Amino acid sequence: MSQKTVIHTPQSKVLEFLVANLAGLPYAKDISKATQPLDQDQAVAKAWGVDGWADYSGVSRTLHTLTETQGAQYADILERAIQPWIDQEVQLALNQGPLELDGDLSPRPVSNGSKTYPGAEYGYMSDRLQLGYQAAMVSMRSPTFGRLGLSVTHHSGNTVSVTQAEGLALEAERSLGRRPMRRTDLLAQRLQNMEPEQKKRQVNVAEAEKKLAKTQAAWSEVQAQEGELAHKLADLEKDYQQRNCPERPNSQLAQVRQRVEVWHLRVERCDQTVQRAKDRLAKQQARLVDWESQQTNLSQRLKRFQAENDANPNPISAIFRLDAGFGNSENLALLIEMGYEIYSKPYGNWLSGTLAQMSATRSADWEKVGKNAEMIAWKAVQLEDFPYPLDLGYERFWQNPGLAKPSCREGTDPAQPKLAYSGLIHFGERDVTADLPGWFHDYNARQTIEAANKESKQVFEVHHIKVRSQPAMRLQEHFALFAANFVRIAADWLANQCPQVPDGWKESTHPAVKEQVKVGAHSFARIEWFGSDCLLRFAQRSIYAGRSLFVRRQVAIQLTLRI
Question: How far apart are CA 195 and CA 215, in angstroms?
């Protein structure tokens, strides 16, 4: 990094920023001005291999000069550091079934009046229009650690979920180093099925061209006739003037004038007819161009997917769960073609009318799937506006579950609970319609990434943007992602070494991350070093009084052979 070293190197200041994120400090100034300042903690500095920490102002200046390239290099270091554990957990998860991935967009709001956040834009965040940023995140279910974060991408605040589905999948595949087998057979069939529609649109364009030519010919005839009459009218007017004859109501001049007016109206009507024909032709041409553009894009996608399959000797089986914000027809079709089993909800009002109409004939088939939810489903439904058959589910919930269940579909008494409806979408080999409670549970298991969003805000304080440059903001997101993974991995490693680890930290799938970071990392303790190992004794005024941890700095990683 192009910054001079006086006492602390710029690299050690970036490391200090990482440790501050691991400690869950809300603001950069807490490095120096918190009740227990990090920059005064020599034991932590020694544990991280540096002689001491810089003041927060020096850390902020270093981060302000961080370039995009340097930020990407630091992020790459962290990804490579955590990769062996991701490889290990992917293999363990695949031994149990498909890999389960969850994607989401998490808001990062800032003050609406702020002028110091570069690239901040207004967007909907937690159902409010607010200034800030968005973070696109992907996590995986981990057999050992419960959850591991795979990727995070920093975006402006006006980014919406519907634009990010493909990006989430590609980032997850980059982090995993593996991907499913692309469904090129389905994509090829989709292209083949598009040919009749293309021919139909070509016919529509040809018919619109003929119609336009016909109306233009008629317009030319009418205009020519109007021109002849107008010329005759001009001659008669000149003759009447020369002979000083008055124009009477039934005179030849009056009759010609009336005929000119009639033919002028015909020309105007023909103009309108020609314009409508032009508009229709433009519309049909646009529909054809749009269809051909889709075909071109899909053909290019097919070639790309075929090449990716040829270079993918060990494909994985993976489930991708996404909320309704991602679930439009284009995203779902793309993810299906990318090889994923899909659990999602329909975007906006797509399918809402269809599901309501379909459910009207099956009012007796509702099945209880949760404490306050019922569900009905249809297997492999071929929709008119979607290329592949989908399993469709329709949920209904009572919004006031404490009240008695209404006897009718829509209660009229405002004191009665009200029904809310929601759709579910699935694509995959599993027959989810045969186990509606299981389908309901499997989709709602995506709450793991909701928990990840909550943890990143409440524990690692990502909603407090500690820096004011785009590269540093991106790096803060990577630090928070790394921190969430690191605490889980370190807790499991520590529990295997030290029997006196607090009880809540021992369960690797639920290692009480918030307690470790917000309480454990800020508890007083005495450190004694024995070479590269250390003995940590919690102070008497700590909640962990009486516990001691002997930590050996030997870390063995069994690299996973991807099969």
Answer: 30
pLDDT tens string 2-54: 788 888 999 999 999 999 999 999 999 999 999 889 999 999 999 899 999 99
Mean pLDDT of the chain: 90
Q: CA–CA separation, 502 vs 267, rounded Å? A: 91
Write the single-letter amino acid at 194.
Answer: M
Q: Is 35 helix (H, G, I), strand (E, B) or coil?
A: coil
% of the chain residues with pLDDT over 90? 72
Residue type, 68: E
Q: Which has the closest alpha carbon to 312: 168, 169, 183, 178?
A: 178
Query: Domains, the chain, ranges and CATH?
Result: 185-310 (1.10.287), 323-438 (no CATH)
CA distances to 168, 295, 335, 338 from 307, rounded to whole Å, are: 21, 18, 17, 13
Q: What is the 3-state secondary structure (H, E, C) of 394-456?
A: EEEEECCCCCCCCCCCCCCCCCCCCEEEEEEEEECCCCHHHCHHHHHHHHHCCHHHHHHHHHH
pTM: 0.87
Instruction: For residue 59, give the amino acid letter.
Output: V
Q: What is the pLDDT of residues 414-447, one digit of tens each?
A: 556 688 999 999 999 999 999 999 999 999 999 9
Q: Is the pLDDT of residue 364 over 90?
A: no
Look at residue 163 and tell me whether its pLDDT is greater than 90. Answer: yes
Secondary structure in 3-state letters for 125-186: ECCEEEEEEEEEEEEEEECCCEEEEEEEEEEECCCCHHHCHHHHHHHHHHHHCCCCCCCHHH
- List, in order, residues 6 or more apart from 447 with CB less than 8 Å away: none
CB atoms within 10 A of CB 509: 13
In sequence order, which ranges of 53-139 are alpha helices (DSSP H)? Answer: 56-64, 68-96
